[in-house]
Design goal:
96 residues; alpha+beta; Beta Polymerase, domain 2; two-stranded antiparallel sheet; two-stranded parallel sheet; 11% helix; elongated
Length: 96
Amino acid sequence: CVAYHLTNVEHKHWACIKVFVDRDNAVVDSIYDLLPGVDWHEREAFDLLGIRFRGHPNMRRILCAEDWEGFPLRKDYKFPETYHGLPTGKEIRWNS
């Protein structure tokens, strides 16, 4: 589900719009043309959850590396132990 919380302070209006997406084909239309401020929000949702926004002018990863595999905030995501041969920190234990 993609939830948009919209507020117009001047007119004291608000709206919550929910768009339900299919998990295996998580694609919704971008609202970038209406509200350019959603640019990074839509990119973050793509990067971390795998939701693609059709029509977004720059739909690419924003937090993870471009070659990162998977979507880290999905419940079934398996965090890799290494990335390009370096430990990801998943199993780091500090000795005191």
